[in-house]
Automatic annotation (TrEMBL):
All residue ranges annotated as the Glucose-methanol-choline oxidoreductase N-terminal domain in the record: 129-152
Keywords: Cholesterol metabolism, FAD, Flavoprotein, Isomerase, Lipid metabolism, Oxidoreductase, Steroid metabolism, Sterol metabolism
EC number in record: 1.1.3.6, 5.3.3.1
InterPro entries referenced in this protein's UniProt entry, alphabetically: Cholesterol_Oxidase, FAD/NAD-bd_sf, GMC_OxRdtase_N, GMC_OxRtase_C
Native species: Streptomyces ureilyticus
Name by which UniProt lists this protein: Cholesterol oxidase
Alphabetized Pfam families for the sequence: GMC_oxred_C, GMC_oxred_C_1st
UniProt KW Lipid metabolism keyword: yes
Pathway: Steroid metabolism; cholesterol degradation
Family: Belongs to the GMC oxidoreductase family.
Keyword DNA repair among record annotations: no
Cofactor entry: FAD
Length: 528
């Protein structure tokens, strides 16, 4: 793998330094291949195209996160968020709204292309990462391979043996997936919160399982020993990690740039896709400055177009293209099959003797696995709440097998999309999470926390998701390999292929599916 320094030497530092000004006419910048977005799906496409010797431009609406701010750090922590935290907001919008009902979590900030976005629809808001690396910059790093039987249920047309024999291992290897040392886990103060939740699960007769991660546990142990700068142990996660996290800019994207065939343009948001008479694709992209002002509108042309804007980004682009007539032959299923991966967040209040510890690692390493319970399948991560103080809270992100799906529709007034997700659909996830955690509370004589999610005494945070999935589902909006129906040389490689649920955290699945798509496309579609 190419080290980041090497990648920087081969192009990373040039990112975003295009010289055109608003006064200049829009010129068409051509490349054989263009990738929209630099999250997991986009990064896999970029690396494999670059390795195949195909000159590729990646267009990313967020910034490159490699320049320290005045505090000497690239990213800010959850404890002291500043403008770097959120995508053009005047106040942070963290998932936990309050603590002891007090508005102490969020802070006023100034407008800036920060790293975490919360995209709000009528009944659901969606957290996504913005920047070179997409969601890998802000996520919890849990790198879980889905249960084979559930993967087969969700992707009945995909060769499961090939996925588990080739593409999942390939994805895990390039992502740098590793696991916490069990002996260290049992002894360190930083995972006391996890051990307490494990005990309560065991008291209920429930199974727990370790979950692997893309966070470097060697680095984390050095953080604990005081020989490395604290990141996971320094309250860094949803606004970025300054150390330890193997985000995509250090893995897939560094290697992509190392091929010498890939260039990444930052702060450029694609808003239109059309097809020229010769079959090539023409993109319109707005380049913004640090205040969000559009300083240039650019045009790009390419033969092969890969969509890696994530479930929201890719689906919005395709729904708009179909409804405004620039790609009218797109399938009617584009925009549908969207789900939240059944996400619900909740907290439990522990007894005074069950201290969870003032020191908590931000990287979860364990989950309560009750997916095999066919009456109520739930996989619940044991999540940290690192405040630096003892608070007796056990926090969880429950992934429930909620079968509800929603569709996006085009809003001609704004040019954006609406999401048809309803509160009743979220209630299905809540009911499943509640069934599991009522059992845990009953077995341990504990209660829920009522003070964490705002609006008087909300127990279950069912109004946001970290796992937007679907919108351009594999085998429906695309063929069995992500080729978009109705158009040749147009591909989806991101989370919009996953039909609304995968039962575990999705980054490994998205990466492995993208690897599968790229192997097939490069073998069959790009031959001269
Ligand atoms: P994604 O990573 O979202 O990348 C899309 C990229 O495209 C972004 O960089 C966008 O800025 C960019 N983009 C979008 N539209 C445009 C456009 N029009 N023009 C130019 N650029 C555009 O997509 N998953 C796990 O497996 N484990 C975890 O522990 C975990 N924790 C999470 C914690 C948080 C706070 C969040 C927000 C997510 C978490 N996830 C986790 C979810 C995971 O990060 C997510 O499923 C993947 O990042 C999705 O990958 P995609 O390639 O689909």
């Amino acid at each position: 793998m190419v080290a980041l320094q090497t990648a920087a030497a081969s192009g990373l530092t040039r990112i975003g330094l295009q010289s055109a000004s608003a006064a200049e006419p829009a010129a068409v910048d051509n490349a054989p291949a263009i990738v929209i977005g630099s999250g997991y799906g986009g990064a896999v496409a970029a690396l494999r195209l670059g390795q195949a010797g195909i000159r590729t431009i990646v267009l990313e609406m967020g910034r490159l996160w490699n320049t320290p701010g005045s505090d000497g750090k690239v990213f800010c922590s959850t404890a002291a968020p500043d403008q770097r935290s959120m995508w053009f907001r005047t106040r942070t919008e963290a998932p936990l709204a309050t603590f002891l009902w007090l508005d102490v979590v969020n802070r006023d900030i100034s407008l800036y292309p920060g790293v975490l976005d919360r995209v709000r629809f009528a009944n659901m808001s969606v957290f996504v990462g913005r920047g070179v690396g997409g969601g890998s910059l802000v996520n919890g790093g849990m790198a879980v391979t889905p249960l084979r039987s559930y993967f087969a249920e969700q992707f009945p047309t995909v060769d499961v043996n090939e996925m588990y024999g080739t593409y999942f291992p390939r994805a895990r290897s390039v992502l740098g997936v590793n696991s916490v040392d069990p002996a260290w886990f049992e002894s360190t103060e930083w995972y006391r919160f996890t051990r307490v939740s494990r005990k309560h699960a065991q008291n209920t007769g429930l199974r727990t399982t370790f979950v692997p991660s893309v966070y470097d546990f060697g680095h984390m142990q050095r953080e604990a020993a005081g020989t490395a700068t604290k990141s996971a142990l320094g309250q860094e996660v949803i606004y970025g990690n300054n150390h330890g996290k193997r985000s995509l800019d250090k893995t897939y994207l560094a290697s992509a740039l190392g091929t010498g065939n890939v260039t990444i343009h930052t702060l450029e948001k694609v808003r239109g896709i059309e097809r020229a008479a010769d079959g090539t694709y023409v993109l319109t992209a707005d380049r913004i400055d640090a205040t969000g002002k559009v300083i240039e509108t650019k045009q790009y042309g390419c033969t092969y177009l890969f969509l890696g804007g994530g479930s929201l980004g890719t689906t919005e682009l395709l729904v708009r293209a179909r409804e405004t007539g620039t790609l009218p032959a797109l399938d009617a299923s584009v925009g549908s099959g969207w789900g939240t991966n059944g996400n619900v967040m909740l907290g439990r209040a522990n007894h005074l003797w069950d201290t969870v510890g003032a020191n908590q690692s931000t990287m979860p390493v364990m989950a309560i696995d009750d997916w095999a319970n066919t009456a109520n399948p739930v996989f619940a991560e044991i999540a940290p709440l690192p405040t630096g103080l003892e608070h007796w809270v056990s926090l969880y992100l429950a992934l429930t097998k909620n079968p509800q799906r929603a569709s996006f529709s085009y809003d001609s007034g704004t040019g954006g999309v609406r999401l048809g997700w309803t509160a009743a659909q979220s209630a299905v996830s809540v009911s499943m999470a509640k069934k599991l955690f009522d059992r845990i509370n009953s077995a341990n004589s504990t209660i829920y926390r009522y003070d964490l999610f705002g609006s008087p005494s909300k127990i279950f945070a069912d109004d946001f998701t970290y796992h937007p999935l679907g919108g351009c589902v594999l085998g429906r909006a695309t063929d069995n390999y992500g080729r978009v129906k109705g158009y040749s040389k147009l591909y989806v490689t991101d989370g919009s292929l996953v039909p609304g649920s995968i039962g575990v955290n999705p980054l490994v699945t998205i990466t492995a599916l993208a690897e599968r798509t790229m192997a097939r496309v490069l073998a069959e579609d790009t031959a001269p």
